Amino acid sequence: MTEFSDPRYRDLDRWDSLTALRTIWESQMAALASIGPALPALAALVEAALPRLRAGGRLVYAGAGTSIRIAVQDGTELGPTFNWPDARTHYLIAGGEAALKLGIEGAEDDAADARAQVARAGIGAHDVVIGLAASGRTPFTVAAIVAARAAGALTVGIACNGATPLLDAAEHAITTETGAEVVAGSTRMKAGTAQKVVLNMISTQIMVRLGHVHDGLMVDMRPQNIKLRGRAQAMVQRIADVPAQTATTALEKCGWRVKPAVLVAMGATPASADAALDRAGGILRDAMAAL
């Protein structure tokens, strides 16, 4: 269906811009609605991924074209937002990194390269490998998931068509049936929107469950500029219920790490704050309760 030409849009090039834009906007809303039926499968996936990631596994994204570009956007944000180690995010890209900017002819059909990339990356039992393909049939992505599953990884297939090879190959199948695009076959549109939202949901909930969020705040973010240091100060001030200067002093003692700074602002030493967080598995709420 993602390749289907919908007769409703046959005269798109004759419509005025307001009418065309309204149609495109409505199609984007439909893409979001397509995610609803997949919520139980998404929840099951998150819970299955947690033990492997707690054991030191990686989040690995696999795909071609628009799909992998969306995936790289998602994965790249995990470091600054949640302090997820950069070494624990990996990409299996049809055509290699050059394909993030250029169209590499035939790359999405190269199943052998997918298998080679899985082998080079040393994919194993602790890794979570997410394959994305709007069609659900991209040979590179299907081959990557098959190889990753054979290596013992937890595998996820995200597609916008049901009953496709990618969904059959993956242990966890996520289907968002977005249907025909306003511009036939342009899966950067509805399909791309659905993929981006699904990845937002998966990665954010995984990070929440791993303890990188407290009271809706990104307490493991990297405060790498003036704006973010101000945000870190506000978080410590709010969570520990202390004056701004106390929050700043605690952050300075802790190398601008929010979670230990909260405990220091509450009276702990930096060493005891780190120890408390270790005992609590990085969950700030539990460390605060113990303190």
In short:
The protein is an alpha/beta fold. It contains twelve helices and five strands. The N and C termini lie far apart (56 Å).
SSE arrangement:
Layout: H1 17-33, H2 39-54, E1 59-63, H3 65-82, E2 89-93, H4 111-121, E3 128-133, H5 139-150, E4 154-159, H6 165-169, E5 172-175, H7 190-209, H8 226-240, H9 244-253, H10 258-265, H11 270-279, H12 284-290
Parallel strand pairs: 1-2, 1-3, 3-4, 4-5
Helix pairs in contact: 1-7, 2-7, 3-7, 4-5, 8-9, 8-10, 9-10, 10-11, 11-12
Explain how this protein is built.
A five-stranded parallel sheet has the order 2-1-3-4-5, with helices on both faces. It has 291 residues and is of the alpha/beta class. It has twelve helices and five strands. 51% of the residues lie in helices and 9% in strands.
Number of strands: 5
Please tell me the overall pLDDT. Answer: 96
**Counting H and I runs of at least 4 residues, what is the number of helices?**
12
- Tell me the series of helices and strands, N- to C-terminal: HHEHEHEHEHEHHHHHH
Largest sheet: 5 strands, parallel
First-residue to last-residue Cα separation = 56 Å
What would you call the shape?
A: globular
The percent of residues in helical segments reads 40-55%
Low-confidence stretches: none
What is the beta-strand fraction?
5-15%
User: Pairing-aware structural class of the strands and helices?
Assistant: alpha/beta
Radius of gyration: 22 Å
| Order of strands across the main sheet | 2-1-3-4-5
